[in-house]
Specification:
Layout: E1 2-13, H1 20-26, E2 28-44, E3 52-55, E4 59-62, H2 71-80, E5 82-84, E6 86-92, H3 102-117, H4 124-138, H5 146-153, E7 156-161, E8 167-171, H6 176-185, E9 186-190, H7 197-209, H8 213-235, H9 238-252, H10 262-272, E10 276-282, E11 289-294, H11 297-306, E12 310-312, E13 322-326, E14 331-338, E15 341-347
Parallel strand pairs: 3-6, 5-15
Antiparallel strand pairs: 1-2, 1-13, 2-6, 2-7, 3-4, 7-8, 9-11, 9-12, 10-11, 14-15
Length: 349
């Protein structure tokens, strides 16, 4: 059995400029940090030779890869060439559709496990690129590339998205004491609203492709705020970073009608009046987690608790996707060739 652990991510600045519709014309950037909220993938040979078994929020048992309903699982298996006799299970710290990049963490963690079980070493760059290929190129999801890179690399990083599609990764350094302070002052509160990020991102993507000037100017501003946020964090100026979070929020809610709701806007204003320096919704918008940088953490916690919002504790994750268990109780055998690609199955030794 192989088990991998892959972190979720929070976006600290520049989110939204990682979509191809924007960066292929203007270049994009974002700051993202991997966090200790994560997803585990367990992978082993199935007992029955023809079975493909999957356990996630649903359970599936099929004998044909094409019959898998979970499209990310299906395409990852196809990408790895493993088409039968496999059992996959996933377990996550928080539920799906919460704005923390969980779908990409699933893809990154699954690919990491599929490589590991075949004794294939890939570095973080190769892993992130493969995950982007599955989600963006094969599945045609209207999404960017920050989630896959944040999950694969871990830590706090700046990702630069070049017009030719290349992604450059730069570790975001900041004073150690200030990083610890940031860890303690960033608080996450669950809004109770799950949503598909594709719904919000599709509007942004189509308007950017149509050269909607309001959308493009909004994203230009987001990118500027991302670079300003990087400079503030590098210096350890958390007060400035909090102010930039607030400006980022004000800019974000202008982007699309589904970015916020009446309740979320009220909770945000309440947080700002009760100990928060700045805040934002994590992810594409419309739901998920409210993240605040707090001046007074206890006052903020009390205000959110009185509104019924649950706080989810976390710490930064420095490692990224990794194998945490490998009993080597398996082997891989090529069982055929289809369209020039080796088709493989897992077997018990």
């Amino acid at each position: 059995m192989i088990r991998t652990r892959t972190p979720f991510r929070i976006t600290l600045g520049g989110g939204g400029t990682d979509l191809e519709s924007y960066y292929e014309q203007h270049g994009g950037m974002c700051l993202a940090a991997a966090v200790s909220l994560n997803l585990d993938i367990l992978l082993k040979p199935a007992w029955e030779q023809n079975d493909i078994l999957a356990h996630y929020s649903e359970s599936e048992r099929v004998q044909n890869l094409e019959d898998l309903k979970n499209e990310r699982l299906r395409e990852c298996l196809r990408y790895a060439g493993i088409t039968k006799r496999i059992e996959v299970a996933s377990f996550a710290s928080v539920g799906p559709k919460t704005g923390l990049g969980s779908s990409s963490s699933f893809v990154v963690g699954l690919l990491k496990a599929l490589y590991a079980i075949q004794n294939i070493h890939v570095d973080k760059e190769e892993l992130a690129r493969a995950a982007c290929e599955v989600e963006v190129d094969i599945l045609k999801k209207p999404m960017g590339k920050q989630d896959q890179y944040a999950a694969a690399f871990g830590g706090m990083q700046m990702f630069t998205f070049d017009p030719n599609g290349d992604v450059r990764v730069e570790h975001l350094s900041m004073p150690r004491s200030k990083r610890q302070e940031l860890d303690e002052r960033l608080l996450l509160f669950w809004t109770g609203v799950s949503r598909e990020s594709a719904t919000v991102l599709k509007d942004q993507d189509s308007r950017t492709k149509d050269m909607d000037q309001d959308m493009i100017e909004n994203l230009h501003r987001v990118k500027e705020l991302g670079f300003d946020s990087k400079a503030a964090l590098h210096k350890g100026d958390l007060e400035r970073f909090g102010q930039l979070m607030h400006v980022h929020w004000e800019n974000k809610i202008k982007r699309s009608p589904g970015m916020t709701t009446e309740d979320i806007s009220r909770w945000y204003d309440l947080g700002m009046a009760n100990g928060a320096k700045g805040g934002k919704l994590v992810g594409a918008g419309g739901g998920g987690f409210l993240m605040f940088l707090a001046d007074d953490t206890e006052k903020l916690r009390l205000a959110m608790k009185q509104e019924g919002l649950q706080e989810i504790g976390f710490r930064f994750d420095a490692e990224g996707a990794r194998v945490v268990e490998d009993d080597r109780n398996h082997k891989v055998e090529v069982v055929g060739i289809q369209d020039g690609v080796k088709m493989k199955e897992l077997q018990w030794p």
